[in-house]
């Protein structure tokens, strides 16, 4: 008894036809009336074969896929999925969003002359080194003094570039308070300490100078913040919370992954080879990461 | 320093073997201070060495195939596709060859009069959905630009008539009541008579023989009756005396085929 086999054209996945027209071993002629299956959108299949994109997959191993296998990648336009834009619902723009004016001279009742205290430049900053109020900011990557000219430059540039309705900026350094003395031109050594010339703010490595926040993305803010950062007397850069975190994490990771068995810390604390002759207690504390007012890069 | 030297000399002239004369700039300078050579060497020795595994990670780690979850919009479209394919009995796929939008609008209007809808779905979603259902053999149709025209009732004739004059849309294939058709197949399908007509035909064909039984059975006696009537008529005519021998002859001729 001849079993009623289905049409070999796998375009009809239905129950096998009882009609003898579509028997085994016979490829259906397109659009035959007796055959109920829509054999092979034949024109398209033939076209694809001619173009070399499809081939007769008779001896294929992949189950009953079909007589025609398309080899070329089907290029079809996909559906674009849009990223959800960030929401700034919790951001409050304060009154007076712009950077406030800082005085050139502090309000000392009796302005005393100070010692040089260069240690206020040396080493890493312990206070004001994280972004608290805003999302973005300028971080100092070296030590230095900021005087009133720098403050004015920063204030004017940032106030000009920012949009007070959607952004705000805040100082994270004090107005100049440290007096710097100068002797008159052409004076010889001696004769006491000079008179106060101007005031400065000392800044250490890692200190945040200006904080920026608001309903804005880092990409909007970064151009003018980095423009300001370039003009500062010490190396600085514009950062966001994420980038700052990444910097710290990278440092930590380096310290963990270091394959060098010899570390500065180890050699200095054990005073191997009498190296403490050329090192100072400062180096013992900061393990060679700082030299003078600058940070030595790539120090683990 | 001078006072110290003086005191030492007075002690007996002993100088410490190493005398470090440290002077020069302070720790924090404006210029870049030159580092002591030993410090430089120390920094060189204690540089960071990154970890280097024998087999780099990228040779072992299998590349992660990011499975992107379908967005809300995609899910919505998928649901619509499902509903369309479940509800409608006739699903036709047309190739969209840059038809003008105004022409498309008119076409849409004309089709709506017969309750035939035009649907547009992204190929990506269609292919992902249809690959797993019984319509997987329709997949080769959804490659280029296409329009899906669906209707709840299989109205192939109206569809083809409406689309007869539009050259920019061409029929690729159809799935009518779970049966796949090519273009010619749809044309043939549209030429089929309606269900009622077909049923009527079948019934009439089957009952053809039985309807004739009555007639067959009655044919003999009916014929006989007719002949006898004629005979009676002729008899009456003979009685009146008109055409006596001719009618007898006629009766004989009629009588022989009847017997």
UniProtKB/TrEMBL annotation, chain A:
Report the CDD domains cross-referenced here: Ribosomal_L16_L10e
Task: Give the chief site where it resides.
Answer: mitochondrion
Q: Name one GO molecular function term.
A: structural constituent of ribosome
Keywords annotated in UniProt: Mitochondrion, Ribonucleoprotein, Ribosomal protein, Transit peptide
Q: Which residues form the signal peptide?
A: none
Which GO biological process annotations does it have?
Answer: mitochondrial translation
Q: Which GO terms describe its cellular component?
A: mitochondrial inner membrane; mitochondrial large ribosomal subunit
| Pfam families, per the entry | Ribosomal_L16
Subcellular location(s): the record lists: Mitochondrion
UniProt-listed Gene3D superfamilies: Ribosomal protein L10e/L16
Q: Which family does it belong to?
A: Belongs to the universal ribosomal protein uL16 family.
This protein is called: Large ribosomal subunit protein uL16m
Automatic annotation (TrEMBL), chain B:
Asked if the record carries the keyword Transport, the reply is: no
- Natural source organism: Chiloscyllium punctatum (Brownbanded bambooshark)
Q: Name one GO cellular component term.
A: ribonucleoprotein complex
Q: Which Gene3D superfamilies match?
A: 3.30.70.1730
**Family the entry assigns:** Belongs to the universal ribosomal protein uL10 family.
Tell me which UniProt keywords the record has, alphabetically: Ribonucleoprotein, Ribosomal protein
Its name, as the record gives it, is Large ribosomal subunit protein uL10m
Q: Does the keyword Membrane apply?
A: no
For this protein, the record's Pfam families field holds:
Ribosomal_L10
Q: What domain of life does the UniProt record list for this protein's source?
A: Eukaryota
């Amino acid at each position: 008894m001849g079993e009623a086999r289905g049409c070999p054209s796998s375009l009809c996945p239905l129950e096998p036809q009882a009609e003898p027209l579509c028997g085994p071993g016979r490829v259906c002629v397109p659009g035959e009336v007796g055959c109920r299956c829509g054999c092979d959108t034949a024109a398209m299949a033939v076209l694809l074969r001619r173009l070399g994109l499809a081939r007769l997959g008779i001896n294929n191993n992949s189950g009953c896929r079909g007589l025609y296998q398309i080899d070329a990648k089907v290029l079809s336009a996909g559906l674009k999925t849009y990223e959800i834009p960030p929401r700034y619902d919790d951001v409050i723009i304060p009154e007076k969003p712009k950077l406030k004016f800082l005085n050139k001279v502090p309000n000392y009742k009796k302005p005393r002359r100070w010692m040089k205290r260069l240690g206020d430049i040396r080493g890493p900053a312990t206070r004001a080194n994280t972004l608290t109020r805003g999302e973005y900011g300028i971080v100092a990557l070296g030590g230095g003094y900021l005087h009133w000219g720098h403050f004015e430059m920063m204030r004017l540039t940032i106030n000009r570039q920012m949009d007070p309705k959607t952004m705000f900026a805040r100082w994270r350094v004090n107005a100049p308070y440290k007096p710097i003395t100068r002797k008159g031109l052409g004076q010889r050594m001696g004769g006491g300490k000079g008179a106060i010339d101007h005031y400065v703010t000392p800044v250490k490595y890692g200190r945040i100078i200006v904080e920026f926040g608001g309903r804005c993305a880092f990409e909007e803010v970064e151009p003018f913040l980095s423009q300001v950062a370039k003009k500062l007397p010490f190396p600085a850069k514009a950062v966001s919370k994420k980038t700052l975190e990444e910097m710290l994490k990278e440092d930590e990771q380096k310290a963990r992954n270091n394959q060098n068995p010899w570390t500065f810390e180890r050699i200095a604390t054990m005073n191997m080879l009498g190296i403490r002759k050329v090192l100072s207690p400062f180096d013992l504390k900061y393990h060679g990461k700082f030299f003078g007012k600058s940070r030595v890069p790539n120090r683990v | 320093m001078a006072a110290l030297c003086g005191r030492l000399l007075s002690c007996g002239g002993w100088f410490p073997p190493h005398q470090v004369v440290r002077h020069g700039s302070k720790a924090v300078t404006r210029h870049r201070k030159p580092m002591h050579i030993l410090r430089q060497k120390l920094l060189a020795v204690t540089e960071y060495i990154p970890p280097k595994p024998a087999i780099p990670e990228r040779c072992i780690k299998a590349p992660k195939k990011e499975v992107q979850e379908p967005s809300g919009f995609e899910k919505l479209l998928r649901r619509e596709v499902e509903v369309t394919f479940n509800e409608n009995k006739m699903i036709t796929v047309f190739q969209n060859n840059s038809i003008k939008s105004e022409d498309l609008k008119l076409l849409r209007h004309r089709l709506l009069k017969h309750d035939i809808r035009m649907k547009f779905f992204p190929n990506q979603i269609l292919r992902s959905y249809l690959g797993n259902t019984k319509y997987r053999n329709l997949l080769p149709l959804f490659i280029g630009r296409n329009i899906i025209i669906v209707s709840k009732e299989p109205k192939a004739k109206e569809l083809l008539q409406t689309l007869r004059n539009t050259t920019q849309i061409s029929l690729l294939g159809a799935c009518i009541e779970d049966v796949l058709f090519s273009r010619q197949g749809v044309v043939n399908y549209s030429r089929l008579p309606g269900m009622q007509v077909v049923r009527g035909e079948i019934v009439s064909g089957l009952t053809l023989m039985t309807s004739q039984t009555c007639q067959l059975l009655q044919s003999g006696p009916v014929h006989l009756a007719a002949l006898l009537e004629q005979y009676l008529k002729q008899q009456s005519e003979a009685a009146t005396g008109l055409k006596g021998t001719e009618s007898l002859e006629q009766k004989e001729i009629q009588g022989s085929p009847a017997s």
